[in-house]
From TrEMBL:
It catalyses: [phosphatase 2A protein]-C-terminal L-leucine + S-adenosyl-L-methionine = [phosphatase 2A protein]-C-terminal L-leucine methyl ester + S-adenosyl-L-homocysteine. Keywords: Methyltransferase, S-adenosyl-L-methionine, Transferase. GO terms for biological process: methylation. S-adenosyl-L-methionine binds at R56, G84, D153, L154, E181. Belongs to the methyltransferase superfamily. LCMT family. The keyword S-adenosyl-L-methionine applies. The keyword Secreted does not apply. One of its GO terms (molecular function) is protein C-terminal leucine carboxyl O-methyltransferase activity. This is Leucine carboxyl methyltransferase 1. Its EC number is 2.1.1.233.
Length: 312
């Protein structure tokens, strides 16, 4: 294949996420009629990966749902900012379910947002969900009434990106959920701290939700890191936030400490209702219980809240 370097490799992780998501959708783990629009060559994934993709999506959807129904209970008074959104389809799914926030912002590298903007323009189901929109910056940005696709480098969050958010109608007074799903771990620790602090400074109240790898040091973690390294991918974030305690501490230190917590996917899986677990168990043969528990111990959902947002 093509030789990728630096940021290209990081951008490539979005294709991976999209392929895994489609694999899980095709087997019935998740429902997402748009997942296939972001994948050129579908691939199957092993059962543990499918279950992981499902649990990750469900854990984050749960937190987002709780945020959207918190406070006055009205999603429209709130906003969501997804940093490193990639091919995420949540905005479209939420809006089609009538549960979208008043504003939804997605940020990624221009190479990614440009492709996403094109996909949206070519697909009536996506375009009509947004309603009237305009393309900007030569097609790498897209702005609708409640949806904004913004191009930029998260390493310049505090300067460029926060300005672009304000230009696009970001509301400092609206309860805001920031989401980084498998994103911060690729950045230098000082950079993600800057992002968290800058995000906290942008809002009166809100919650910051992170999903990423943990536990680099045990055998499974070492193998996970080695496999990534072979593809040229490093996870610098793991050096500073290797476990659940460190993840909680990060929120306390970076302006999101009014309430914060971190759980791994094993813990989250335990909270999935038994009927749903049975449905999942019926989707494909699943013998890899031990591997599943190991994998799940290596991914965490962590969040920190700043004032005012209840039940997040
Ligand atoms: N959040 C999406 C999901 O979970 O499906 C995509 C996750 S993908 C693993 C990581 C995403 O973060 C990629 O789309 C990548 O381009 C983006 N990203 C990483 N570093 C970035 C940076 N410095 N600026 C903008 N985007 C970045």
């Amino acid at each position: 294949g093509r030789i990728l370097a630096g940021d290209d490799v990081i951008r490539g992780t979005n294709d991976d996420a999209a392929v895994s998501r489609l694999a899980a959708v095709n087997l019935g783990y998740l429902t997402d009629p748009h997942a296939s629009l972001f994948v050129r060559r579908p691939q199957k994934r092993p059962p543990v990966i499918n279950r992981g993709t499902y649990t990750r999506a469900r854990a984050l959807d749960d937190l987002i749902q709780r945020f959207l129904s918190s406070g006055d209970g009205d999603p429209r008074t709130k906003q969501i900012v997804s940093l490193g959104a990639g091919s995420d389809t949540r905005y479209f799914l939420l809006k089609q379910a009538g549960k979208q926030p008043g504003r939804y912002f997605e940020i990624d590298f221009p190479e990614i947002t440009g492709k996403k903007a094109q996909t949206i323009c070519k697909n009536p189901a996506l375009a009509q969900t947004i309603g009237a929109y305009t393309l900007a910056c030569g097609g790498i940005e897209l702005h609708g009434a409640d949806y904004h696709l913004i191009a930029g480098d998260l390493r310049n969050f505090a300067t460029d990106i926060s300005q672009k958010l304000h230009d696009a109608g970001f509301q400092p007074d609206a309860p805001t959920l920031f989401l980084s799903e498998c994103v911060l771990v690729y950045l230098a620790p000082s950079t993600s701290e800057q992002i968290l602090r800058a995000a906290a400074a942008m809002v009166r109240s809100g919650v910051y939700v992170v999903y990423e790898q943990i536990h680099p040091d045990d055998k499974f973690g070492q193998t996970m890191l080695q496999n990534l390294r072979m593809r040229g991918i490093e996870l610098p974030g793991l050096t500073r936030w290797p476990d659940l305690d460190a993840q909680r501490r990060r929120f306390k230190e970076c302006g999101w400490g009014d309430r914060c917590d971190a759980v791994d996917l094993n813990h989250y899986w335990d909270t999935v209702p038994v009927e749903e677990k049975e449905r999942i168990a019926g989707l494909e043969i699943f013998d890899e219980i031990e591997e599943w528990m190991l994998l799940s111990a290596h991914y965490c959902v962590a969040w920190g809240a700043k004032d005012g947002v209840k039940n997040a």
